[in-house]
Amino acid sequence: MLVGDAAAAALHGEEGRTLADAIGDHFNARQCRLGLAWAHMCRGDTASAISQYADLIAEARNAHDVMSLVSAVVPGAFALAFHGDVDGARATATTAIEACTELGFLLAEAYAGIVMADLAAGDGAAALAAAKTAMRSDTNVAVEKLKLV
Questions:
Q1: Span 100-110, mean pLDDT?
Q2: SS3 of residue 122 by DSSP
Q3: Is 57 contained in some domain?
Q4: End-to-end CA distance of the chain
Q5: Is residue 87 in a domain?
Q6: In this model, does residue 77 exceed pLDDT 90?
Q7: pLDDT at residue 9 above 90?
Q8: Three-class SS state of 12
Q9: What is the CATH number for 63?
Q10: Domain of 113?
Q11: For every residue of 13-76, which 3-state class applies, written as one string?
């Protein structure tokens, strides 16, 4: 995923998920399934990506796994925006903002879901405002962390 190879992400995601499921490692099975959902999104199969992200979000919530929740809601909002579901993208991005706030980082990425929803709605001014909020949010988190040091 990190180098943009959707085919490799799908291949290794499937292999990793199978292994993680076999040994009962639910966290890493979810992480591997993120690669599968991402590959579907990159290939333009947003309906499959949306379904997979929705399943991951539900499982992460049930497991109280904030890291997997964040890892699913951020790109899940993008998939919904790419699919044209502006309201779903905005709602999922709002969930991402809440989860990232709890996690303490990745707020800019969460706000990017709002940017994508606004762009999908054709509202460039709102997207620009959300992008500015995104940039301030990560700056504010960094400043607060420096105060703790």
A1: 85
A2: coil
A3: yes
A4: 33
A5: yes
A6: yes
A7: no
A8: helix
A9: 1.25.40.10
A10: 6-148
A11: HHHHHHHHHHHCCHHHHHHHHHHHHHHHHHCCCHHHHHHHHHHHHHHHHHHCCHHHHHHHHHHH
